[in-house]
Known about the structure:
The complex is a heterodimer of chains A (about 300) and B (about 300).
Chain A: H1 5-15, H2 20-24, H3 26-51, H4 55-64, H5 66-76, H6 80-104, H7 109-131, H8 134-142, H9 150-179, H10 181-187, H11 190-212, H12 215-218, H13 220-232, H14 236-261, H15 265-283, H16 288-292
Helix pairs in contact in A: 3-9, 3-11, 3-13, 3-14, 4-7, 5-6, 5-7, 6-7, 6-11, 9-10, 9-11, 13-14, 13-15, 14-15
Chain B: E1 12-21, E2 24-34, E3 39-43, H1 50-57, E4 65-69, E5 76-79, H2 93-98, H3 102-105, H4 113-125, H5 141-155, E6 159-163, H6 171-186, E7 190-194, H7 198-204, E8 207-212, E9 214-220, H8 221-224, H9 227-234, H10 252-255, H11 258-266, H12 273-281, H13 288-297
Parallel strand pairs in B: 3-7, 3-8, 5-6, 6-7
Antiparallel strand pairs in B: 1-2, 1-4, 8-9
Helix pairs in contact in B: 4-5
Amino acid sequence: MNNSLWPALDAWLMASALFGPFVEFGFMRRALAGCVALSLSAAPVGVFLMLRRMSLTGDAMAHAILPGAAIGYLVAGLSLTAMTIGGIVAGLTVAVGSGLVARNTVLREDASLAAFYLLSLALGVLIVSVRGNSVDLLHVLFGTVLALDDAALTLLGGISAVTLVSLALLYRPLVLECLDPGFLRSVSRWSPVAHYGFLGLLVINLVAGFHALGTLMAVGIMVLPAATARFWVRRMGPLLVTATALALLACFVGLLVSYHADWPTSPVIVLCLGVLYMASLLLAPHGLLRHQRPAASHLRG
Amino acid sequence: MHMTTQTPPPAIELDNLTLGYERHPAVHHLSLTIAPGSLVALVGPNGAGKSTLIKALAGQLRPISGQLRGLSSQRIAWLPQHTELDRSFPIPVRDMVAMGLWHQVGALRRFSASHRAQCDQALAAVGLTGFEERSLDTLSGGQLQRALFARLILQDAPVVLLDEPFAAVDNRTTDDLLALLHRWHAQGKTVVAVLHDVAQVRAHFPLTLLLARERVAWGPTASVLTRAHWAQAQRMQEPFDDDAPLCEAETPAATAAPHDHKHSQGHGHSHSHAHTHTGSHGHAHPSAHATTTAPKATP
């Protein structure tokens, strides 16, 4: 009955700088859908990563998946399936290998992970430089968020769904593994399940992230929203919600800015997260300024 | 003592137990039986192996040799000397304490209203009413220790192991927590606590194990905490000897007669011989019955 309204709304949407690109171009809608899927899963994973003090581990793991993706590329060319499987296998190998070394030798987690991921990274760089060309290398490093096909979107959606379901199931053991791992070990056998399960989620999200944003930027969408949210809220639930919202906001804004300014997308998205981080650092209740300054007044008790 | 439970839980039996790190014994050929429902103080000089023994009892350390019986079938609540608790974790006190209900809710089941009420009761029992919604990082050291005790209350385990639970805790809090220990004792729980305050041990703990890597004395507190026993405990050589020869009792020939080994040590301090003797064999002790039946009773 409102037939006259729709064309008007359509015209406004097309014209508006905020929604126009998404209405007009399929690749922008796909990019947005991919980023939404990625934000929904990577941001909560990032919150746990931060609470487990493993934010830099995320970065190391992102480098560790490179040779897997490169070998996948060697075998099957620029194939989504091959690179995904390769990335997951390489990531899990490094995660489990360094975990076993850390739990069974004198080396701590950080040193054993550093050893594994550096080897993995060197191997990846070697394979890419010997066999690939620079365009492929750019794909791997910076992702292809503006060229997501159906298969890639399905993969991102699937990884997102698997991550959310797994996090729901692992939530309590994972919280306890972060809060008091010794206690978890004394009351149940969930500790290794939580630890390796979480590393698995980390790896598949990095692989998802690397399809969309590239290996270098994939960690950004995990770590930055979590760190930013920490400036605002101090409870688990709000942290997860805020981090996800921040990731979604940065993706939306980042896609638009990159469209209008004709800049590469993934660094713009990460820089948007960076702007949010800096603003929160300055303004948020647990940020730099408010944290440093003693309160002007105090309570009676 | 066993009136509260229908079937008394098995005694905790240490049979020629040697624990340690990199083949150096931290606890050496320890044999004794702890009757169910005992309230035991574990004392000794630094490096005597107290924490190592608690860790082994908690199932966190595999023995080098010897046997540990009667614990595998029981739930254990364990408060280590240094918890791995991350105080910066963004969680309210009630949620941390609620993890003590793990044996009821596990990883997946929901917390019900009655679970919530249990948490609040436990917090009230340790004097932390009003702290339910506070963040962990706003608690003082003593308050955090109270919260950890509230978690132990909720664990409601038949065996409670405490490693220096009152270090850095003020007198009033210590008194409150000691009262809690007595309540657990009255409920028939087995409580083993590593302690340093000798007066406290005398006042509150019926049984004491004085450990200096090897067993110095074990039994009723008054007979254990003697000047002679302390002097003997102080003579323990604290650093490991890197060139130490193999312990003869570990070779197959010697393990065939572990009792002789123990006896020869018992004779070294003849005035305590009676206690050492009864302790190591579990005779004149209330656990005599459980000692003989426990291995068959536990699968």
